[in-house]
């Protein structure tokens, strides 16, 4: 049985909710299989998120891992292309930790690419009618650090594909007119991503510029 691990984050930055966990939860209720989908909520903690993700990967033994976070200011589902080995926290995490210019994993490579077929995923999300983009930076905060830790952890297991998706905030989280996406659309986008990965072995070759 193919097993998929999908994670979202808890609230941070004074918000009562995190759009990623709302969308992950909705995606789980709409999941029809046949693969098994396991969802987990991670804390917005540099230390806690990677610890809990490591435990989840060990417990669940997934074939595919997609971590999901919220990116305020964005208007589209963002397929993250690359995780970088640096933290430069703009605000403290939920533990009060705010590292500046430190590596996620000391002595490890500068970056890891997503092992998801990001272009195929983007086309699938667009096909589902949801705004999408390829993103070349997951930031330098907890999402990038968790993404980097995931790619580092799984770099020894190339048969397990993994990556990161950023979602816009929900309309209820933002001022009128600010970029946002409904949880329903975000969940539709996530389901399209998972279905695209599960049905694609090699990525499609299209320019990111043609995806907009
Ligand atoms: N977004 C933050 C951390 C958790 C989240 O959902 C980020 O982009 O790093």
State the CATH topology. Aminopeptidase
CATH architecture type? 3-Layer(aba) Sandwich
Mean residue pLDDT: 96
Determine the oligomeric state from the structure.
single chain
* Tally of helical runs: 5
Q: Strand fraction band?
A: 15-25%
How would you describe what is shown here?
This protein is of the alpha/beta class. It has a single domain, classed as Peptidase C15, pyroglutamyl peptidase I-like (Aminopeptidase), CATH 3.40.630.20. It is built from 5 helices and 10 strands. It has a 6-stranded mixed β-sheet with strand order 2-1-3-10-4-9, with helices on both faces. Strands 5-8 form a two-stranded antiparallel sheet. A two-stranded antiparallel ribbon has the order 6-7. Helix 1 (19-30) packs across helix 5. The longest helix is centred in the C-terminal third of the chain and has 16 residues, at 183-198. The chain is globular. The termini are far apart. Pyroglutamic acid binds at residues 9, 12, 18, 20, 44, 69-71, 139, 141-143.
Itemize the secondary structure elements and their pairings.
Blueprint: E1 3-9, H1 19-30, E2 36-42, H2 46-60, E3 64-70, E4 77-80, E5 82-84, E6 87-88, E7 100-102, E8 111-113, H3 118-127, E9 132-135, H4 142-154, E10 161-167, H5 183-198
Parallel strand pairs: 1-2, 1-3, 3-10, 4-9
Antiparallel strand pairs: 4-10, 5-8, 6-7
The structure holds pyroglutamic acid.
